[in-house]
Design a protein that fits this description.
Helix content: 25-40%
Order of helices and strands: HHHEEEEHEEEEH
Strand content: 15-25%
Structural class: alpha+beta
Radius of gyration: 24 Å
Number of helices: 5
């Protein structure tokens, strides 16, 4: 909900000014639905991660010497708790698994089934000291994660009343406060699509309608 709240805050400040908003005790009500917000945020994150996985592994966050102080200097890589990822360092690499240690000093393993999307073996994937994102599956087992390079946004609204129930403007508010729902500029072609779709629906087309888009060849007769 950070994107939603920040968008409301900016709108109110733009309309009434900083002094009034922060010194006159405004009470602001929104149609934000926390259940829908959680669903929307998770759906966006899952979609971005799945898309990113198809592009392969891009490498570790950084490589550090493994010792008692390896955790220092990693603040810039931390994500919000709602994402559920940990930062870990690779301690040992075997043929079928990698041994890691998280910032909480928990030791665990990454098994081969959790790196098959990278299309690489452990000895090609990691080096000792690689700092990576992981997600805990169960006690002692972790899956490999990477921050999606592609980003996006999602809006949940009532088309009849215009009430906006949920907004998520990106994968991680902590990594990027830029709201891709309200601040990004749309391509003209994408902005025009609703008008084409509305015309199609008025003419009894449905989302499953098939339209022939093969090249048209007109016979112009014999060449005289």
């Amino acid at each position: 909900s950070r994107y939603y709240i920040e968008d409301v805050r900016k709108s109110v400040v733009d309309k009434y000014g900083f002094e009034k908003v922060y010194k006159q005790g405004f009470n602001i009500k929104t149609p934000l639905n926390l259940d829908l917000q959680n669903i929307a945020t998770n759906a966006l994150r899952v979609g971005l991660v799945n898309y990113d996985k198809r592009k392969g592994w891009r490498g570790p966050l950084i490589n550090k010497k493994f010792n008692d102080k390896w955790i220092e200097g990693l603040e810039k890589f931390k994500l919000e708790k709602s994402i559920g990822w940990d930062i870990a360092i690779v301690k040992r690499i075997d043929k079928f698994e990698a041994i890691i240690e998280t910032t909480n000093k928990d030791t665990g393993i990454i098994e081969y089934e959790d790196i098959n999307w990278t299309r690489k073996n452990f000895n090609k994937l990691f080096k000792i000291g690689d700092v990576i994102y992981v997600k805990k599956k169960n006690e002692g087992n972790y899956s490999l994660k990477q921050l999606p390079i592609a980003n996006g946004g999602i809006v949940v609204m009532d088309p009849f009343s215009g009430r906006v129930y949920a907004i998520s403007g990106g994968f991680s508010f902590k990594k990027s406060e830029f709201n891709r729902v309200s601040q990004a500029r749309r391509q003209p072609g994408s902005a025009f699509k609703p008008f084409i779709y509305a015309l199609a629906l008025e003419n009894n087309y449905t989302p499953s309608s098939l339209i022939l888009d093969a090249p048209i060849v007109l016979d112009q007769g014999e060449d005289l």
